[in-house]
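[RESIDUES AND BACKBONE]
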Amino acid sequence: MKEKILQFLKTKLAGVQETYLKEVADFYAKSLTDETKIEATFTDGVVDFIKLNASQLQKEGDRRATEASATAVKTFQEKHGLDENGKTKAIPGKTDPAPNPDEPAWFTAFKKEQAEKQAELNAKIEKQEKEKTSSVLTEKVKAHPKLKDIPASFLAGRNLTPASEADIDNLVNTIETEYNGLKQELVEKGVIQSQPPKGGGAPVDGKVGDDVNDYLEEKFPKAEGQTKT
C-alpha cells in the first residue's frame, strides 16, 4: 500500500523531494488499507497542506545548510588568514609572496600552513642545536688551564658561555683578569698578605702563608675534585 500511495503523491506533488513523500506515504499506509480510498483521502486541501509543509521544510533545510556553510567558510578563513574573497590577508610588518591568481585559495592556504609548520620545526631544531653548542663551549671554558686554580664559587653566577669557539680565550682572560684584580685589591687593603712578615713577626690578620689564594680559597671554596697547586 505504501508504494501505491507514494505513486499517487508523486502525480500530485511534482517537484517535492521523494524522501519527504516516502515519509508521508509511510505515515498514511498505517491506517489506509483500501486502495480505492487513496484519492478520497488526499483531497486538494490535504495535498496543498503537504506541499506547503514540504516547502517550509525545504526552506529550513536550505537555511541551515547555508548557515553551516557560512560558518565553515568563516572558520576556514580565520584559520588560514583569508579575507572574504579567499585572498591572504596582509599582516603588518610581514610581506608574503604574491599569490598565484590561477591557484585555488584553499591550496594557497594549505601551502602557507605547511610553510608555517616547517618554520616552527626549523626554529625548534635550531634552538636545540644552539643549546647543545652552548653546553659544549661552557665545558671547554670550565676546563681551561687558566681557570684551574680559581675557586668554583668565584665562577658561580658568571657567564661561562662564549658566543663562539673563537671567543673562549677572550672570556677566560677576562675572568682571570678579574680574579687577579680581586687578589691585588685584597693585598693592597691589607686583608691578606702576599709575602710572610720578615723577622718572624706576626702575620697580617692572622693569615699564614705566602700565597694570596689561601684567603681566597677560604672565601671561595674550590669545587670537588680541584686541588691546590
